[in-house]
Amino acid sequence: MSAIGTHHRRDPSDPSRDLYDPRVSAIADRLLELGLVLPPPMSAPPGVVLPFSPVIVRGDRALVSGHGPQEPDGSLARPLGKVGVDLTAEQGYHAARLTGLGILGSLERAIGDLDQITGWTRVFGMVNAAPGFVSLPGVINGFSDLIIEVFGAEVGAHTRSAVGLAELPFSIPVEIECEVEVR
Known about the structure:
Elements: E1 8-11, E2 14-20, H1 26-34, E3 55-58, E4 61-67, H2 89-111, E5 117-128, H3 136-156, E6 159-165, E7 174-182
Parallel strand pairs: 5-6
Antiparallel strand pairs: 1-2, 3-4, 4-7, 5-7
Helix pairs in contact: 2-3
């Protein structure tokens, strides 16, 4: 059986048999096992220039710029708008999960292999919240649950803030920035 921290995958012809493959990272294997696909870089809306890097690595830290939810083709995921009026809390949770996949894609492009992540340290989750919507932590749980599901509790555990804002860029429902430790 496949496990985090190993480079094994199940033999498709015999699921009870493990195959060692040093070319496959444990995290890539885990994403495959979960049926998750990382999107390509975000496609900015027409006429928009984003003059910053999605990830900057400094020493043993990778700082991740704010990301929003993405479709598998890199475009902004729908629906857009405010959680609590245009989206339900459950749709916001799903948007936070999609945001996590986009962040993982950016990290993979920046550091080459998600197994280089030794710890998630800080997560700042922002929700495009309707007035009176206060279930902000439940929305950002979509991101936290994904990270712990993929990396396990030891590496995936992180500190976190979840705040509601009056507006987010392009009317995205969720924006998340974070910091991870890398080897």
